[in-house]
Amino acid sequence: MNHQHINTSTHQHIDHQHINPSPRVQPFSKYTIPLIFGAATIVYIFGLFINVMDVDAAQYASISREMMDNDSYLQVLHRGHDYLDKPPLLFWLSAISFQLFGISNAAYKLPTFLFTLLGVYSTYRIGNLLYNRNTGIVASVILYTTQAFFLFNNDVRTDALLTANVAFACWQLLEFSNSKKWTHLLLGFAGVALAMMAKGPIGAVVPAAALVSHFIYSRALNKLLWWQWFAGIVFALLLQLPMLYGLQQQYGSEGPLFFLWTQSFGRITGENVWHNDAGPFFFIHNFFWSFLPWTLLATLAILLLIFQLIKGRFGSKAIPEAFTLGGFLLPFIALSMSHYKLPHYIFVVYPLCAVMTAGFICREDSRYQHIFKWLRTIQLIISVIVVSGAVFLSSYIFPTQNFVLWTIVLLFLVTVIYFFLSPKSALEQLIAPSAIAIIAVNFLFSMHVYPSLLKYQFGSEMATIVKQENIPADQLYFYKCYSHSFEFYAQTIVPPVHENELTKLKQSGKNFWVIGGEDLLTELKRERLQPLQQFSVNDYSVSLLTITFLNPETRRQVVRKMYLCKL
To answer: Which helix (H) or strand (E) holds 533?
Structure first.
């Protein structure tokens, strides 16, 4: 692998005594990075217009709409009742976006996408600080094209906001640790405050783990005692006062306590009621798919850093830096001890993982050159596998004959092969094919797979019928069912109707509509009520995919019908 000197003069403010200078690598050709970022951004934008998924994303969208309707931003309500499970940042931003742009998929997802861009840029700056500009670029490419980021910009929850603000906080606080400028301190703790208002104390834990690891490893323990840190903590708490005040007003002291302790640390101590006992290795196998196509490179980077650290007896010269390693590993281990785990909980440390991976890829140590020759081929194989999976989904699981779609996918594949075979730098041959391949995968997902899958989400499908038929919102009822997505798209809160109540409603002399499954038809038959109109849609829990559902030959076994009946 040939290498070209990268000018690092722009980083004179970095404390080089404690942060090893980065290795030199040959930069990308002129148009490669704009091509990757441009193509990925187009796919992200396509994703803005895809329907939100039940359960969580649709619930949060519905809560945001309700917040806007009530014009009540300090108290979070769901269907008119107190809602304590999540901090309010996502609801605030989405409600404001609804006010500006109207209620739509894109308005709900736009704030998350904008913060994603901030997180990717912050990751570039972290890589630039710890290594050099080229490593920062590679880190940002890795993060922007990681499957987890494509996923949580489609299935929008609180995690994208959390991750972006954590990355921003890490960048600014690392800058402060080198320059001691107040601007970086205040911006860093503003990032911490926003991260905490997105998903709780984990927003402070990750930057703290990274900084403490960095100071301990670089033998700069005196920096831990700077009084400015305490000023920053106070500033972060001041920024969170509106949220804490709202929690206090709504729940008393239980509200702030739940936010600061029970909801997060309580999952480790067992105080939180949520338990799924997923096991201590749950996040490891979820990391393997969610960090694609960079999983292998990231795993090697982490293992190599740990090996070098142990081999060097934890000396200050053993590894290039410990900021990302500590910021990644310590929260990862802590989260693995939780009694309740979901795959997206670890996405918060992926910016630091991206920098670690980029640092590994860009190293010039001659001992690893033969490894990179093999990795280039292995990465191409991984790329082919993930693209083949998306093609299989689009040709067999949810088949499409769209000629334009397949033509664009073919162009993506030609680009992948071009970057692999052309006389580019070894770095470009390693990175570009994998990045283009995962963009192609998510292009297929956004343009075909997700829309096909969401045809089985009865809430959004039923809401479309309600709009087409101009059914008044005050005439709708749920019978033994519920859908967050229906209420979001119908822009109303739908009350339930119970057994033996349908006849009473009918006797009122006013027409009404009832949504339910087969048990609704059974109840209508039992009460001898004949629908004046009836519509049906397919239903399946699209966030819980199974082989039976994905197999077109067995899909009917698990798909049920939902009905909209006029009485």
So the answer is: strand 533-539
